[in-house]
Request: fold
Amino acid sequence: MIEELMDNVKNGDTIALSKLISIMEKDERTRKEVIKKIFSCPVRGKIICFTGPPGVGKSTLIDQVLSILTSEGKKVGVILVDPRSPYTGGALLGDRVRMQRHATDPHVFIRSLSCAENPEGISRIVKDVIKLMSFAGMDYIIVETVGTGQIAVEVSFICHTSVLVLMPNMGDDIQMMKAGILEVADIYVINKSDIEGAELVEAYLKENIGKRNGWEPPIVKTIGYNRSSVVPLVEKLEEHSSRKNCRYDEKIKGLLTTMFLDHVDELALKFLKKSEDFEEFVKDVANCRMDYYTAIENLYAKFKKEVLSNEG
Amino acid sequence: MMKRILIAKVGLDGHDRGAKVVARALKNAGYEVIYTGIRQSPEQVVMTAMQEDVSLIGLSCLSGAHIPLFRRVMELMDKMNLKIPVFCGGTIPPEDVDILKSMGIKEVFGPGSSLKDIVEKVREMVGDD
Reply:
């Protein structure tokens, strides 16, 4: 069944693509199986990630980018990530609202995904859905992620081009420094630039962004609902993603590092959950019978013997 | 993975309060709700349901045009061979309920429906894993 779905996806069947994404989201083993089979297909699509705090206009910008790209005859896949409640598991995925005019365009495929609070979980799935969309023949794959921080950094490893969207009056420069993703973006957008204060954001960005590996990250001012203001952004996107991207190997290095850490992390957590010794160590340390450094050394020795040497 | 539900406003009215309240109740009940926003064509709704691979579609209409609009949604789904249960809500007169159900719509929630009732019926419609 999976084989058949994959064949259909390759032939441009969007229902099959939609079904396969659901299966991959649900079942980790199938997901890995699919990726192993399709990975050798060259990445044809340009992968672009839009991040930024809520409310800066990422979805509206993507809507404009979609209309510009599709008018050039490009096929575009869009992945929209919205948060899921850690309490009920429910989610309200509303990013689509801004781009529904593209819903019936056969060249556009939009998929919403929800993410829980753990960043590993979502980037695991997102990177595989990107690969699948690439396999489905998309010329561009656009990912929108909420907010800042770890998710954005991880997804940026998979993307050719990362766009950070900001807007005027978001707080002072300290807020921006806190954001922590200023360092990873390839293109900076000041959206809603018709609001007063855009020059201040621009001045701050100019001060803090330097040339990286021969690429000087541009700062583009846009007004989300104004198509012509978004054209320069699309030009920059094309320029960055089509130039020989010397940072791509570096990004894959980052990706493999996170994936490896993630893998070891999972093994370690599984070990702790099962280990009876762990409970003993907890009691020993709590009652000052053993110091925590010794406890960790002993625990690691057990982990190495019971898990790592049996891993094969 | 949570079951996914599409909440869609079909037609030209802008009365989205009901759709939003239902969307929020379903979110709080633990579903992933995809909301289309207002003024959607039947084509947009069906394509969205397809791309998002939802388990259930909720249609909302308060303009009075629910019968032709919802019928078009059902016809398009049939044409695309999409088998997804559909329920609906809005200012729907009691005498239209049977007509809507004869099109294949599972449940109809008119004015005054309780959220508790809607969530319970939704549970039945999507089924449990």
User: Anything to note?
Assistant: The two ends of chain B are 10 Å apart (CA to CA). Chain B has five helices and five strands. Chain B has a mean pLDDT of 95. Residues 4-126 of chain B form a domain with the Rossmann fold fold (CATH 3.40.50.280).
